[in-house]
């Protein structure tokens, strides 16, 4: 399998070294989500919002990466550490505002480095999930090329309500950012807004923050005040305008989250189609940003691919299939299947209406057919579980055919037991394997067999109670029923049936 990911190519920093640090601001409460889950932990495209922020930051290859936390501190910290063990978690104190958030982070990074950081410090938000590394690279490049004190990423919006407004001088440099709540009518008319994403010179950032107060309508330390202070100190403050507005859009409520999620999905699908994947119906296909697909994969309508799912060349997935952390081998077919934590071999076929649970490993050219549930089972090359059954805690060899309706009785109500079935075995319909039990290579089982004892290689195992037939049971026990009537009609028909031919009987023809 050779999954290809066009995203693995790292953006490069032409002519400049990586930034000293990226600081991701994530201390806010996010009350508009109306959720017990912290805002930045809400997922889209298979990653939490803060997960996307960390991915974008990591793409810059910064020497240090810090996330400022406060709201739901423990839960957020645990989540971030799980995603990226190299992140410095910085706690914001009682002093509110984006300026204070950056100040505590910078202090912590300085202490950690044992000296004041120098070079470029990038600031981003934990709730702006579509921002890419490429955009951050362009920001840092503009910052370095202009030898700027501060470079801010901006956007021009039709409705700038709520955002900080960008005030520019005649030469295009930035004179100040004015928060919406502190703006005059003339300033409110400005449509260029602050995205909240910046590159700073570390030294200027540190000294400017010392001058930031909370003398504003919100009583907060505004990071945006640094721009005016840096300019007053003789620094060049510049802005670059993001042409792709999605990249600076934050999610404050669940409506915005779904909106951004849909756009992210659209981008992921487009990227894969351009990389050689056929997606028949993008409108009903959802693919996480974390999924890997190869060339000439076909995704049929109504399909969702999640997590660490990987699909190899020429495989066909869907319609109506949901796979999470599933590996699909080259040329395999997976139809109307719900799968988690499974591996499907090259050329294998799964579905329709199949439930693959964790630990399912299907060998090359194998088959798990309709109405099958599997869990923790290894199926060897060319073996087939074609219809109606359950296989759990089992190991099946190569080129074995499991008959219709076979079940591994793996659970005795207390613990799970293993079923081991060899290669080239043929089991008949409705065989039940009462685990722990072993069936040797080349063995056969009879219909309805309940296999409680090991079957040696090449043996036939049948287990049956003799069939007992009680004539006339229905007319005696169920008189007047439809069944009794049908039985009576059949009896009359059988008794009037004569073995003679019509010609002999009719006499003339
Ligand atoms: C901020 C900017 C504004 C910009 C807007 C873009 C300031 C003063 N204003 O406004 O110019 O247009 O973002 O979205 O910076 N945070 C902390 N600690 C805090 C406060 C905030 O970590 O004490 C984090 C939040 O979690 C969030 C980000 O900083 O991720 C922005 O905070 P928010 O309160 O949303 O800032 P805005 O008022 O929207
Ligand atoms: Ca905001």
Core attributes:
509 residues, alpha/beta, 11 helices, 36 strands, 27% strand, disordered C terminus, binds uridine-diphosphate-N-acetylglucosamine, binds calcium ion
Task: Describe how the helices and strands are arranged.
Elements: E1 21-25, E2 43-44, E3 47-48, H1 49-58, E4 64-69, H2 73-83, E5 88-91, H3 98-113, E6 120-125, H4 133-145, E7 150-156, E8 165-168, E9 174-178, H5 185-188, E10 192-201, H6 202-209, H7 225-232, E11 237-241, H8 254-274, E12 278-279, E13 286-287, E14 292-293, E15 298-299, E16 304-306, E17 310-311, E18 316-317, E19 322-324, E20 327-328, E21 333-334, E22 337-340, E23 343-344, E24 349-350, E25 354-356, E26 361-362, E27 367-379, E28 384-396, E29 401-402, E30 407-409, E31 419-421, E32 432-434, E33 437-439, E34 444-445, E35 450-451, E36 460-461, H9 473-477, H10 482-496, H11 502-506
Parallel strand pairs: 1-4, 1-6, 4-5, 7-11, 12-15, 13-16, 14-17, 15-18, 16-19, 17-20, 18-21, 19-22, 20-23, 21-24, 22-25, 23-26, 24-27, 25-27, 26-27, 27-28, 28-29, 28-31, 30-32, 31-33, 32-35, 34-36
Antiparallel strand pairs: 2-3, 6-10, 7-10, 8-9
Helix pairs in contact: 6-7
The structure holds uridine-diphosphate-N-acetylglucosamine and calcium ion.
